[in-house]
Amino acid sequence: MSRDLLPARSKVNRQEVDTIRQSIRFRLSLLFFITIVIPIVGIVVKLPSYYLDLIKEQESSLLEGTLTALTFDIQTYLDDLERMTVTPYLNNEVMLALKLKSTSQWKLLTPYEQYEAEEVLNKTLPSYLKNMRKDILGTILLPMDGSVYITPPLSFSDQAVKGFPFKEQDWYIKAVKADGNVAFTGVHKQDYLNNADSEVFSVTRLIKDPDSGRPLGIIMADADTVLLDQMMKGIRLSKGAKVVILDDNQQLIYSNQPISGDMQRQIASGSRTVMDVRDSYTVVRETISRSNWVIAILSPEAFIQAHLKRVYWIGTAFAASGLLIALILYFTVSHWIVTPFKQMIQVMKRVQRGDMNTLYRVKGNDEISQLGSNLNTMIYKLDELIDREYKAVLGKRNAEYRALQSQIQPHFLYNTLNGFIGLNRTGQSMQLERAILSLSGMLRYTLEHNDWAQLQEEIDFINKYCGLQLVRFAEKIQVHISCDPDALSLLIPKLLLQPIIENAIIHGIEPCDHSCELRMDIQMQSVPGEKEDILAIHISDNGVGFESSKVQEGLGIRNVRERLQLSFEGASMSIHSTKDQGTSVQILIPLKDVRRG
Fold first, then answer.
1. C-beta neighbour count of 246 within 10 angstroms
2. What transmembrane ranges does the database entry give (predicted)?
């Protein structure tokens, strides 16, 4: 790294400057094309489409509001018809008459009693069903004995067609299946009445005995389809728009304009766009919840397209003006900005490559020149900062590393020395000699100034450590250590694994009242889905264990975790423990981060 603070300014080669200028001008041209021309062309192309979508959205919102109001009006009207079908339940005399006519008791009544029941159904019930709305064409009551009672408006006969097969009609069957609930029927003719050929839509209900649930009869209220025309007159629609109502069987109930069978099938299928021979329509629909009728408003695309012609002219004029202004700005700015900025770019690239002897040649006193001066100052201070910070960080890292390593000292010297005394008193001189040699080897290994050690050396150290622990615990502990032969030469921080082994013996095995097993397995493994293999170190014991949520991590384990993170960026350590079952520690180190000794 250079230590020159203000190096002399070198002369820039003219050919190099011209090449750079052409390159920058080409890039600026490309940038101009990408940022100005393409967006303008895109606006010209997309603006009509955007405006079309906007018109469609507004039209759809307006139609949805209209459709909601229309649906509410029809729903209200159907509710009125539905209320007429529950009228028999409101009069006890009517219900009693229907009960008598639906059983064999009718034949046991006296003629007078039969007359009174007939009067109730012929006069009392019609007085309840009387309705002043001209669009309600009357009601028909069909007791289960086959008799017919009609409540018509003034313009129709009150006589049913003789022998008409009521029980075979779709609306009759539908009411029976509804089992007391209301059933809505689409458009049909009043072919069951004399001199009445109007098309109506109806509401039917099966009248049942509230006590026994036995069917007593069918009641149906008819409404004139002219009512729908009257509702449509209060709706403002775009020119050519159509309103279509389909029943629950997708049959046409109403249309304000003629529609083809193909259009009806498209509407019934739920399509949002309907096509006919001359035009296409956008469909907004809603379903009446009580009757499952579908109300659809068809808005013609031709009405929307008519609004787009002026948008094309506006978009073209806007694009031409914007392109002209952009060209003027391009040629003005490129001459003023390109040259100084391309020089700054070259200076920054040389600095990025580590050449701290380069400076920008300042000319003038404008904002760009001030930026160039600041760039020179930045390069000078960056050079100083890199030098100072590099040394400081390196010193701090080494200090932290040494401090963490120095905290990891054997905690078992006292117990080991007591064990030596015991061996001496019992006359086990050979075992005492081996123990002393193991302790001296451990102390020599600990006092060495190497920061890294091969896995083979760490395993030897741990074997000696565990051998000394066996002097104390005898048959209470069994140690098993296995290692992949290819991993023995890998380098890891010295004394990285010993604190985990020590922790397992002191906190896991020593408090235990039975013989325990301590295992350490070291393998090089591949991870599914990952390109790089890992070094996996697994240390486990079957000691007393602990509850992870209630025990805080000790100093030794924290130091191991910190050293591991300082040494290997991608390494991880996890601890799993179960009370009375044991503890396992797993260390995973990417092999790409590990060196060999």
1. 22
2. 30-52, 311-338
Q: Please tell me the predicted confidence (pLDDT) of residue 296.
A: 84
Sign of the torsion formed by the C-alpha atoms of 541, 542, 548 and 554 = negative
> Which segments of the chain have a pLDDT < 50?
1-17, 154-157, 406-408
What are the structure tokens assigned to 572, written together?
A: 């991880």
Query: What is the reported pLDDT for 460?
Result: 92
Residue 3: partners with Cβ closer than 8 Å, 6 or more residues away = 383, 387
**How many C-beta neighbours within 10 Å does residue 158 have?**
14
- 10 Å CB burial of residue 510 (0-12, 13-18, 19+) is middle
CA distance 490 to 595: 6
According to DSSP, residue 552 is labeled: P
Rounded CA-CA distance 110/116 in Å is 10
For the chain, what percentages of helix, strand and coil (3-state, to nearest 5) are there? 50, 20, 30
* Residue 17 CB neighbour total at 10 angstroms: 14
Cβ proximity of 499 and 557 under 8 Å: yes
φ, ψ for residue 457 (rounded to 5)? -70, -40
Please provide the DSSP assignment of 46-103 as one string. Answer: HHHHHHHHHHHHHHHHHHHHHHHHHHHHHHHHHHHHHHHHTGGGG-HHHHHHHHHHTS
Q: Do the beta carbons of residue 106 and residue 145 sit within 8 Å?
A: yes
Question: Is the pTM here over 0.70, yes or no?
Answer: no
| Beta strand residue intervals within 176-317, DSSP E | 183-189, 199-208, 215-224, 242-246, 252-255, 273-275, 280-288, 293-300
Exposed/middle/buried for 322, CB within 10 Å: 0-12, 13-18, 19+? middle
Q: How many CB atoms lie within 10 A of CB 552?
A: 7
Both tokens of 141, joined, read 């009551």
Is residue 147 within 8 A of residue 102, CB to CB? The reply is: no
- 420 vs 82, 426, 574, CA distance in Å? 103, 10, 36
Residue with the two structure tokens 């005394």: 421
CA-to-CA distance for 435 and 464, rounded, in angstroms? 8
pLDDT at 474: 77
Helices 555-567 and 367-406, axial angle in degrees (round to 10): 140
- Gyration radius of the chain's alpha carbons: 48
Three-state DSSP state, 332: helix
126 Cα distance to chain centroid:
60
Buried b (16+ CB within 10 A) or exposed e, 455-476: bebbbebbebbbbbbbbbbeeb
Residue 475 one-letter amino acid:
E
pLDDT recorded at residue 134: 61
- Residue 480 confidence (pLDDT): 93
- For residues 250, 252, 255, 258, the Cα torsion angle rounded to the nearest 10 degrees is 110
Predicted pLDDT at 36:
62
pLDDT digits (tens, 9 = 90+) for 370-423: 777 787 888 878 877 877 776 666 666 565 555 555 444 555 676 777 777 877
Please give the pLDDT value at position 14.
44
Could you give the strand order of the β-sheet that contains 582-590, starting from the edge strand earlier in sequence? Answer: 477-483, 516-525, 534-541, 582-590, 572-578
Measured between alpha carbons, how far is 14 from 190 in angstroms, rounded to an integer?
Answer: 101
